[in-house]
## 1
Amino acid sequence: MKKSGIIGGVVAVLLVGGAAAAFAIAWRPPIAAIEPAAKRSFDPAEVKRGRELAALGNCNSCHTVRGGKNFAGGLPVPTPFGTVFSSNITPDPETGIGRWPEEAFRRAMRAGVDREGRHLYPTFPYDHFTNVSDDDDRALYAFLMTREAVRVSAKQNQLSFPFDHRVMIAGWKLLFLHAGAYKPDTSKSAEWNRGAYLVEGLAHCGACHTPRNALGAEQTTASFAGGDVDNWRAYPINAESPAPVPWDADALYTYLRDGFQPDHGTARGPMAEVVSNLSAVPAGDVRAIATYMADVFGAPSPVRKLQGETVLAQAKQNAAPPPESEGGKIYAAACAGCHDSGRPPPYGGIHLGLSTAISAGDPRNLANIVLSGVAPVEGERSPIMPGFAVSMNDRELAALLGYLRLRFSRQPAWSDLERTIAEARRTQTAYVQNSAGPTNAPADPAQRDKP
Amino acid sequence: MTTLKVNGRDHQVDAEPDTPLLYVLRDDLKLNAAKFGCGLGQCGSCTVIVDGKAVLSCVTPLVLLEGKQVTTLEGLGNVSAPAPIQRAFIEEQAAQCGYCIAGMMMRAQALLQRVRHPTDEQIRAELGPHLCRCGTHMRIIRAVKRAAQLMDTAALAPTNQGIAR
Amino acid sequence: MNASVILDRRKVLAGGGALIVSFSLTSAFAQDQGAPAPPAPKPPGSLATAPYLDSWIRIDADNTITIFTGKAELGQGFKTAFQQIAAEELDVAFDALKVVTADTKLTANEGYTAGSNSMHNSGVAIQNAAAQVRALLIAEAAKRLAVAADDLRTENGGVIAQDGRRLSYGELVAENMLHVQAQPVSDLKDPATFKVMGQSIPRVDIPAKVTGGAAYVQDLRMPGMAHARVVRPPSYGAQLTDCDAVVIEQMPGVVKVVRDGNFLAVVAEKEFQAIRAMQALAANAKWQESARLPKQDDLPAALMALPSQDKTIFEKNDTSVSGSKTIEATYTRPYQSHGSIGPSCAVAQFVDGAMTVWSHTQGVYPDRAAIAEMLRMPAASIRLIHVEGSGCYGHNGADDAAADAALIAHALPGRPVRVQWMREQEHAWEPFGPAMVTKLKASLDNGGKVADWQFEVWSNTHSMRPGGAGAMLAAQHMAQSIKPPEPKPLPLPEGGGDRNAIPIYKFPNARVVHHFIPDMPVRISAMRALGAYHNVFSIESFMDELALLANTDPVAFRLKHLDDPRGRDVIEKAAKEFGWQRGQQAPPNRGYGFAFARYKNLAAYCAIASEVEVNRETGRARLVRAVAAVDSGQIVSPDGLTNQIEGAIVQSTSWTLYEAVTFDDTRITSIDWQTYPILRFDAVPDRIDVHIINRPGKPFLGSGETGQGPAAASLANAIANATGKRLRNLPLTRKRIKDAIDA
């Protein structure tokens, strides 16, 4: 990600488009402020629909910070260009969007421009939200305008020159924003299209799961080929998925709706908030997302399918080789008690042979989880895993992770584990520190596995 | 045989390397403070300090403790010479059944060694891994703050002539 | 804690001569010659069943004073409180005595430490016994010093004459001097002169607990002690069909596998060896299970479909009063868990036909009887010694662990055997607080007062104790198994499922029906406050619903219906200290709630006002602050009482917002803190204030359980005030609140 690339891009725009064209792109007119609308003026059915859409869009995950009020913003989002803070989207007239007419809200979603005409940083993923229909924008607007107004001023972004100048964004948009609502693919089913509409739009999965170019935009030729969020790896969710057991529509549906799936594990890290929200939206929408994404994953090759079945069969066996290495001894002593107990997820640790974190190319997520553990959701039945940041030093953690990779995956060893771990420890991910965390815990299994 | 350094002394321990520290402390070294509450890392009753930081001893096997310093509540002080944290909990009467208290105190001690004047928020966040079923939480928070004050007084004492600690 | 010390309560190290006092209980009530003497009035408290003074107090020649109580220290601070009481009445320094608690060899049989009866039973007994011992010592000193008893005073363990001559208690006491029966009336000290009672004395047990001293049954260590773990069945009624004990007995350190029918346990030299062996044994054991649990989703209906014994426990009619506006409501409570932080533990040793068991049972005598029955041994050959465990809040796994240890020790004569339950075992096998349903219906007259009140409660028994051996898992599971006893309702006025079902308010027409359900598909027994938790939750929630209907402030509405002046005092005190204002309006997203009850309608009074904050997006409710007022008669330790009430509020908040035992058709599935979450520090309120109304000279009123019901209702009322929605099904989870807000 090079500064020079971006500057170059904007300069290119200015030169190619000419000053007038550039001005036309860079400047957007303000939309007149309105008096904040009375809450009762909104149709309750619209508000309800907006609530579901907001859950699909994960608005609260970025716009609510730990210890802060709902939708009042303030979450620091680290980017390669500096830290951007999420804004206050409560209907507060002074510090929120209370004076925004619906037209201004729609423009923000569709084109990434605020009421006053300033460009919004694409950290707010309007490159996805542009796909949202006018009707859905209306419902979202109704929902947000009926939230509790919270008077909290936006935090100043910490961006280095020249990114602290919003005019730079105009150039970015010219290159990377394809504005306009989603258009269905008539050769696909209604459910597929619904899923595509949601995934490419509100759910903005690619914002995490697609790699970005030097200018910070998603690489559209590598959709869903994996991305980075904070110090987490958002795994490839296409044919390059590293999951030991291949995903299908049913597994995806269960995972997204319940927060865990027995053959894949429990959603933790930033994904925990996503599934927490998806547990509260209509099941049909989650089913649609699963259908679309199953298509993105594609059907597994026969080889891959067989590998998945083998892994599942092995996971069900109890045979464990006696640990010889230091990593093996640590595993047997600190991890096997839960992860080899046979107690199914979400309350039992997943059998590590099924873990994507161990089979993936990137060990960061595994390092993050082992360091910080999994904290309970307040008052809810939810998984608890202790963190080992204090009881293990970097060398011990590297030995453990190395052992896990060797024993539980068929992939080549990770390199440079100690450095990855030290980095993970040092970064103390912003997510862990600032995120309000998931509200809903993984769903309760209705039936335990009968022996 | 493994050498384990606990409360400043070396101990020869005849236990398998996968034995959780909790059982080594209680069964081999006959120490009482660290308690068995769940053995699953969910309740905090087993908390001790290793190299200055609070750990859950029930999920910390012996194999991870080579060369590290373990401190238990017994290592902080005793009835005739209590440490500030112990005095604070006595003065605040911060216990009902008391079973969770030793673990709380070790976590608090580790916190106070890092942050001398933690806020209520910080104390609550730090004690998140700990359960108290009797509902003594309010007193526990007060005791931690009192311990901070007592540590201040103890720190000042050497410069004040004739003031006993 | 030295097991080899043998103490016999009758042996007193005598000073000089012996004083024999003959004592007739009827002499104070002299009748005409020839007329039969009326039955002697009983001495107060537990002295009625254990009248000899030396059952309670022993004074040695060196002035060592020991107090014996048949009650157990559960973490409520009773040991300290009893020490205070005795020190006060004996006129000795607090530190000059020590207290010995429940031990079948040493102390009186005071049944269970339960029901908030300890002050009433044991505290009163000790108070009176101490006063009478003091009187005896003064009488003896009067004789020796040849002065009138009235010219003597006691101070610091000695009797002092006006001329300054002094005789210490140790010098005065003689063989069997205290082996006299207590009088029905004692000369108790004037509360105005109290030096120790009524003071917040630091608890005697806390120093050891904060310095790693041996303080719990879990800390017991004995020479040659072996470690045992039980392999419990996976579900109720599961039958052990196969297990390979031989391979387990070859594991490192394993001493023995004990198999007796469905009872399966392993004993090893070291604790972790026992755990590893238990895990291996559990993995190779095969069980046959049966699906016999009700549908958790529809528990209230499942409960009410069971056969019940229906009894009207209260009825009042006044046809001159009738109501015009009527409302009704149903409230439900799930099974809830004691959730003791330290899973149950016991040590037992069987030597030469004698069994000693160290346990945190609440009742050493009943537990001894049960173990005797289980082992087919005479009770006299068994000694049960209470050693503190973690807070039990009622009948948890303690008695079962004691039985486990006894059964295993019986199979391993000579060696002390320590049984420690695992967390999952405590969660799955403890007897829970029973699920309950209440239906209420009431009508208001034109003046906005209740004209008619109907209350029905469906519940199991709330106690399976004393139950004999059949109440204990080991006895149920062993080959010659003993069946669980028939459940019986606890009689009123204490009650079980109907505890506090009869309203304390004065209603012109009222009817209360108790539907006692004998069938217990899920294992239950006594849990702190018993039926009072749900009954008070229901009554006090409904009072608020009625107050709303009557357009009356909730506090004013309660006062309109309450005569009891002490009840009125706590209500007014809590309201005042909270800042309760009629017509008040809580800030946005917040609500205020109030509740009041007198535990069992005869123990301590408690009123609680709460402020709650509800996050409308998530439904999360948080207790912001609570203000309580409590009247428990004569206060022994203000700080001890405050500690109990604070704890009750926090614990009840956890029960009320989070807790429900979960199960599928066969197994209990809430088996650890993941699956049975309780309150953590992120939900602790900003402040709790407890205001005590002391009633010097009035009887002690049990306070350990008085806060549970009012805390729950106060919370529910505050949530209703904050959201405008009334929730009636416990627990008041975040999801339920959110659904109610969204509806």
## 2
Amino acid sequence: MKNFKTWNRRDFLAQVTSSLAASPLLSGPSFLLPQSTNSASQTARSARPIYRTLGNTGVSLPIVSMGVMNADVPGLIPRSYELGIRHFDTAARYQQGRNEEMVGRMIKQMGVRDEVIISTKVLRPGWSRDPNQAPSQTYSAAEVKSHFNEVFQSSLNRLQMDHVDILYNHSADSVTEVHSEGALEAMVALKKEGKARFLGVSSHQPEMALKEAMKMGVYDVVLIPINYTMAKNVEFLKTIDEAARKGLGLIAMKTQAGGAIKPDPKLEKPLTPASQAALLKWVLHHESIATAIPGFTTYEQLEQNFQVALNLAYSTEEQEFLSDQKAVAAAQFCVQCGECRSDCPLGVDIPQLMRSHMYAVQYSNYELAAETMRAIAASKSLGACGNCQSCRAVCRNSVNIAMKIGHLKTLQSNGTLPA
Amino acid sequence: MVAPLWAGGLPTMLGALSSLLILALAGIPAFAAKIPTEEEASRAEMLKLVAEPLPGSAIAKGPASFYGPDNLYQYMDGAADIFVLYGVRQMLHLDARAKTADISVDVFDMGSAETAFGMYAAERSPEFRFMTIGTEGYKYEGMLNFLQGRYYVKLLGFGDGADALLEDVAAELSTRIGARPGLPALFSKLPTGNRKPHSEQYIPADPLGHAFLGPAYIVAYALGDQESKLLVTVASDDADAQRRIQKLEEHFAKTGKCETAPELGAGAVRASNSFEGTVVAQTKGRYLILLLNPVQGSEQLLKNAASGLG
């Protein structure tokens, strides 16, 4: 097989199409619209949400849960519970603890502790993703363990609980972090003490985290981003299935690809909430995923998201959205990993242009989009793009780079983007 | 003899030629003065805030990093979501070391004093130890956060002497930021009696889970052992305020109950449902005023708020 970097567009599409045809996830009348058999039997409109079991934990959950985003809308928790949500996810560092406080207060007020699954997450000390900064200091395993225990005890105090159902090693984005000796020692002990029923790891490097978790046998649950932008990543999708077969409980976050609801500028009409539902349904058609934790900040968003738990069948509008390459591509987002930079022979600053596209298309903030572009050196900016017959840059997260650069050129030429 | 352009002769002609040359060169990018973008200007301002020398002879461990709404999660994980909700423009991060202590500096440019206050208040808890720094600040478990202008500054200290270093660095940053505006002006129009200290909030989007209520100002009041909250949403005009109360009525009629409350004023309503509790609401000009969890004696708050906003 050719090295993918030497592929032209025809090679790429041929490879993707044949891989998709082979994927059980993606079989069906349209490669974009998976119809998993078991879920299909449950897709008749039902008042009861669809439940799945979280790996070997034995916990049965509705397929839509709640990622608690904002401590200042406490009503969302009882309303979520009323609708049928039973799992609420928070973390020690969200709003400096106010998020956990609110979750704890509402669950206590509702008197439903034994009926819900509560998860929280603890970060290892010295955690920083900043590439320019060395860690403030290195910590021994004993120090990490002590810090972890201290932070977790504070979490239990804020939650007003004597245990959580899932305790995560938070944001473990490297093998070292997944294997953090101090964190694991703390977590295993906490599980033995009954303060954490199950242990989990959350990560933005999903494939790595799944593979490590499968090897280690310590984690019961893995919380990972999974969304439609990964539809073509066949290896990753296979890894998810393998992890589920091995008994890991899989929970999906960032299911709506960053929540883009602004339209492709070429589309005449705005994208509807159906696009959000379509993206969530796409994730949940994958039966290896036990539940998803979309974040929502309004009652309207809550109801739209939870409808998915009642009915996974695609509506006509949702089918159209997923079949519309432009609309779906507009929902993708660049994670600014920078790996595409070396792909472009002309040195175009693709990540910055993708940022500009996001401001223009997702936020309709054309001023900010233009500012972002102006910050790029002319030799690397939009004008430097050579409109190659087939774009050489390949996004590792499946963002359609060429299409988005095309959008920016259109917006600039029609005056929508200020000079 | 050179024919003059006008009655000035050769020197004037040379001056005119010079002017033309300058104008021509100005059209060439290399020679044109570059006007910084807003993002560049903001970054430049933020870099000045953390320029050395820093207190305690702290030295930066590396260059400062900047994060925007799209990649802030890479630095803060899911904690970034709320910052994006509050409209963060960009964040500067810097680590520095001074003798035996390390300090981590995060400066958030929230775009405006209002949203900076909103984000600061979203993380503020009444149990923090408040201090006079910037517009307001507090210390808690090795961190010192403060609000000043459009900046929300978060400092973390580690090691011996970290506590003192935090205060010194905060004081220096505050001096460098300069102007020290107070809390958003609308709060001064709301009742002060029984107001719970440090309970003010500004929520730019989706307050109480309703998009139509944004932006909104909230204050908590203590009446005995009970708490009520006043929420004031600022509409674009009187008609918009009426539309908002109508949407509120529709929401509660659908999810619970809603009835008129004429004892509170013309157009006032009392509403409740199983997940939001009880609310009384009325409009005053372009404001929609809500009283959340009204208890005995608190309904006067609604009237006083309406009076203050008039």
## 3
Amino acid sequence: MFNLKKALVRASAIVGSIGLLATTAACGLGGDAANAAKNGTADSDTVNIGVIYPQTGQYAEYGRLFKQGFDLAVEKVNADGGVKGKKLGLKYFDTQSDAKQDAAVAPKLVADQSIIAVVGDYASPASAAASPIFQQAGLVHYGFNNSAPTFTDTGDHVWTPQIGQDVYQKANADIVAKSAKKISVVYIENDWGKQAYQYFKEEAAKNGTEIVYESSYLPDSTDLSPILIPARDAKPDAVVDIGYGPDGALVINTLRDKLGYTGPYFGGQETKEFLQLAGKNAEGTIITGSFSATGTQDSKAQQFVKDFNAKYGNNPGNFEVTAYQAIIDLAYVANKTEPTREGIQKGLQTVTDIPLYQGKGGTFKFNQTNRRADNIEPILLIVKDGQFVQYND
Amino acid sequence: MIDTLFAGLIHGSVYALVAVGMSLIFGVTNVANFAQGSLVAVGMMVAWWLGTSLGWGIVPTILAVIVVTGLLGLIMNVAVISPLEGRKPIAALLATIGVGQVLDNGLQIIFGPQTRPFPKLLPTYNLQAFGIRFGTSDVVMVIFAIVSMLGLWAFLKFGKSGQAIRATSQDPDAARQMGIPVKSIRNLSFVIGAVLAGISGIFVGLFNANINPMNGGTIGMTAFVAATIGGLGSIPGAVVGGLVLGVVEALGISWLGDGAHDLITFGALLIILIVRPQGLLGKNTDVRTEPLTGTFLGGGRPISLPWWGNLALAVLALATPFFFSDYLSGVGTQIAIYAIAAVGLTLISGSAGQTILGMAGPFAVGAYTSAILTTRLDWPFLLALLAAGVVAAIAASILTFPVWKLSGHYVAIATIGVGSVMVAIIRLAEPLTKGSLGIQGIPFANVFGQVLYTQQMMYLLDLVVLILALVVVSRIRASHLGRVFEAVGSDQEASEAIAIRTGAYKALAYAIAAFFAGLAGSLLAHQYTYIDPTIFNSNMSLLILTIIVMGGMNSPLGAVLGSIILIGGPELLRFVPDARILAYGVLLVLIILFRPQGLFARKA
């Protein structure tokens, strides 16, 4: 039986579909950037820096430290007159430092024409998932915490002021070599730890340091005795850990409290978290870093430490200062050029006196071939009386 | 050697303690409680707060933890688990995942995200043996584990309520007719399980020394492995399983290094399941029960659209990339990719009735295959995409080959192991995969000379693959093969009786699902341009399964809807940034409670 209603619905579905297909041909797949070029950019008296960072999830502690640095930096920039008369703002996006969420949220930042540059994320896999999207849109991705040597390979809009692990680990292996001939090394099993250990091993070989035991460990392992027992039994002059804060504390606590190891230890992370977790076991550990709140001789860095203390009641560490500096850097180059996406990119390419808070202070410029900062030197930090202080050997 | 062994035994007794609670709940309610680890974390964090901020001692702390976790257990059963009674246990399992997420993120919001030292409620390193120092805390923990095991055993054997619990677990209807208040008995078992978890939390905190509110997930997963090794539902088995796992891990890690930790843990799980499926102390009869199989709600039928409806939907979907902004298209790519992985799963978990908890494995194999073929051998994208599917299907088939002789929930558990082992192998196969370093610089997809570099172009490609996947899966469902899958899922015994080799058909359905997961992996790799093993974690496996549960287990279109909600959800919830993931957990629980057959299926 012929059903008129049904036929009509069918027909309209088909006709509608064809119509839709025809109209879509007029639009393109070029994306927002292509359309924005037609429509012109949004104009207002505020420009923003987009932040992709772990506000929640397993890396939330780092997100919290970053945010302290960002917020203070923006206050400072605006107190000093903003960027070319415009107010600087921050737009935060929580990603949990999870690659899936980074990839999903990145286009949202691209589409927001008030965002002139992006900083973040904490972990390299998450950052790397977002990079191609920013690169493609001509938006600077300033991965201030991404020390992975391949991070900037994605394209010419991907930059990092972070000291490369090659430099850090060379300094690390050199200080270890001064007091130890035979060492046991453990390192965290992720992209960062693996790469860092490769550099460490190369330099150790050059120094003639013998590695008598080595093992990686997974970030969420809770009992490291199975690898630390052989590490102890290899009778090393020192034990070296290449990792983060909580795991660094687990390594030293297991060695000292559980396995009765009393020799020197190199490892840990310059965070309150590490100092709290390791307690008196942390005493005397030496790590490489880029900043010491009490040791810095740079006047603007000393001012930063003062401001930070006034706002948060404690000294800033490496995570806070790199976050702070990221915003200051971008605002500085925007002031030298113009507060737009193009301006930031041009600024990073041409400005040669970007303010530097880490290392010895002063200024720095970018190496234009690998878009990393060449002239930032690592410093050594030692734990004395429950605080990290600069160590001068 | 002896010191490693001893360290393993101490760590193993931590596993044992948590596993006892897990096994109790499973034994008496047939619910695999994935929130158990989170309840452990609740006990741990409450004890941390009382011990650190208020300076309470061990005894008042234990009492307070008992009250808090006991109440939580009761609320959890009354509000979430017991309304799902009578439905397939997979509903309860997924609800517990949602509850776990709410608890984990709630703890993080309440107590802050830092890792912190646990207060020394008992002396921790005051004793020494075999070159290892340990504490009164460890001794008390071992005693507590043994006492709670014996106490529970005696309670279940001789206690009146204990006998009622056992009767309820064997046959709730018969128990009700005998005058047992089934509801209160179920509440009682959940309270006992939750209190056990809470007290374990104190000892886990003392042992780990450094604690984090997000520790619950790992604690729960390891305890689940320990309980399975010992024999799910057997309380002495949980203790034995915990100790065995602790020792095997210690010896294996001492030999291979901690980088192989996952391989050892989940490899041990797989070997036990293959050699002795019911676990070390489990009863052989357990294997015949199949609580995790079958469709979400027996008889839930997918809503099917007429052909013109499907056509209109397809055209509408294909038109979206032309209108969507970068952001919407970006979210769209993730939705489409996860939907592709989930569509195939409707065949094995929906039709053939076999829950699969390890889809991250084939997903990862596909991503790596495609990445390696295009970066090292310069294969064209489309060929690499196809190869990704094929290699994922082959790898998944080979690794799961011994699993199909198992039955029921043991297959589901084994697939957790298979998924984790696949990713662990990728991490260790460094010359080929670059291990933890990850592969960078994977080229964007290139289709017939056109490089897909905008979000819209990638989204369009993902949609085309998704529609192809939907067509293929729907055709299979309508074919003779699809009917055989349905038969296997509806009644395995009856299928065997008419000479259907159920194991072989499940393996085939799984291979097809793995093929699509491989395609999804390839698309993801060429969008991110970077992959490393941490992307393919157990959360990814759970997410893919949850997607089809949400949409309706055997509904291919439902998988798309599920993906829109579960991948789009966290994005939509950005307006409550602090509680985003918590709200997501609540949403998951609510949907399971109010539409248990799935969104895109109707009740039979």
